[in-house]
Sequence to fold (300 residues):
Amino acid sequence: MLRQNLIRLSIALCERSDSAPGKVLLYDPHRTRSESEHFEIMTRLNRLVPENELYLVFQPKVDLETGVCSGAEVLVRWNTSKGEISPALFIPLAEENGSISKITRWVIHRTLSTVGGRSLLELGGRPLVYAINISVVDMRAPDFVEFLESLLELYAVPPSQIELELTERMLIDDDTHVRGNFAALQKLGVRLAIDDFGTGYSGLNYLNKFFVNTIKIDKSFVDAIEPGAQPGSLAVMEAVISLGIALGLELTAEGIEHAYQATYLAERRCHLGQGWLFSRPLSFEAFVDFAERCNLRESA
Ligand code: C2E
Ligand code: CA
Ligand code: CA
Fold:
């Protein structure tokens, strides 16, 4: 057992990004604890049975001007025998060990069977758009678009009511499969969004090369909107809004927790908002109730 642990910890030490041939790495019990936790999560991910352990929550997106619910971002949850593990922790590990493909495909299947099967594609005469997070590993898979297309057909979901949230990193990836899939998704007619916009890469050149529908303004920019904020601290966010408007893109701000943030963003013509001010992520039933309250009241 001791020998097994020693070997495992040595492998974890060698896999660190700061390791290099000939470099001495010191044993740090705190860091090593998180490395062994990661190792355990990876092992669990390899044995994951999505149908039994994963479930979905839906976080509403709201039109900042009218209060109408325009749809939801679909977020995955993982319930293990040891309790819930946050996606912020397990998704990067699943990307690392490849199990993300199984997770994404389960998320797509479950989302489409839920919204298509229950005909929840519009409310009060307004179409609802469901946004699904996609990883670079999915975009590198040659059969990804075919998989998505077959499920859209099976559950009779119009492609225009599904939005895929991609990251900036993906768009500067020079992988030919990523480029091919991007073009095929555009042809299929699903909506494409850039998640966490402005947090990764400063090169905006990809906006000319790839067609996207939506920019998601990251929570870190929204957090800067606070009473008495220095104008300089909001300059980047305002530039992002202006850029989005100039390019004719839809803008969604995420992580809105306060009414003054929503007002500020609406005044600058940011279209949609998402965050605890409106709603935490909900079960599908609770999401439908929320959307009915917003949209049926609005159309009454
Ligand atoms: P994300 O795509 O940026 O998702 C937004 C995260 O912010 C979600 O955390 C959401 O619950 C949280 N959030 C929303 N509004 C607020 C707010 O007002 N205040 C605060 N403090 N937080 C808010 P969550 O669900 O824990 O997801 C974390 C990350 O995990 C996501 O970040 C996304 O990168 C990843 N993720 C979640 N579900 C999936 C999935 O199905 N597939 C993939 N590939 N990644 C996923
Ligand atoms: Ca997202
Ligand atoms: Ca985000």
Observations:
- Residues 53-299 form a domain with the TIM Barrel fold (CATH 3.20.20.450).
